[in-house]
């Protein structure tokens, strides 16, 4: 059972804190070996949070008992960090234990030097400030989250749920992650590379455009081309590409490949297929193309992913 520490601090950001509680601390007796989570703080007394709330958390002096640390935001306008907290988080990271930051939580990790040379992100509103203060960090904009080694960072607010679901998927598999997402009444998977701020949400598009995307998801086994999707949406290719980027923050081709890889991950967890069979089921023309895209979007080979996450073994 993985033990999770959710960090509480003065001026706590309640939305990100609530996301951490919902993802990792909510009791889920239907799953074996679910996370065992505690809200901890290195500060004494009650903590102040958004809306004049006061929170009393368990005061600790060490993180040795935990396997995963969640940092739900952090103060962006202060450089002061409790010395014991700084020491414990640095030691936690040095042991290779996983750390997740939500939204402005990346500021704390960067201030401790834990993001130097690593990929990281934060809320788009803080992007310029973050770059100015932490030039040694490989800041990535227009993403929902980053994962680099043992440290993951989500962009603002709701992107915390996307990162949390990805961590759950990595720990428990696609089926359980989808069930958790369903309970949250949100999409089970948004790629970490998706733009975090989109001027025209897909929900406002509706009609034939949204129906075309739904149709594509249900026909990923076919050799779909973007031109075909444009015709189905009754648009010129140029208009379709523009509308797609406005709605989803990426290109139709990239989106299609991401959906195919997402399906491939589900099949690798639940079925025993060779690489060519898998490629055919998700719409790639060959196992070579599947391997290339799987490595590109997931970072490991399909075979390695199956060894880690297959429910058939």
UniProtKB/TrEMBL annotation:
tRNA processing found in the keyword field: no
PROSITE patterns from the UniProt entry: HTH_ARAC_FAMILY_1, HTH_ARAC_FAMILY_2
SMART domains associated with the record: HTH_ARAC
Keywords associated with the record: DNA-binding, Transcription, Transcription regulation
GO molecular function, one term: DNA-binding transcription factor activity
Protein name: Transcriptional regulator
PANTHER family the UniProt entry points to: ARAC-FAMILY TRANSCRIPTIONAL REGULATOR, HTH-TYPE TRANSCRIPTIONAL REGULATOR RV1931C
Chain ranges of the HTH araC/xylS-type domain: 210-308
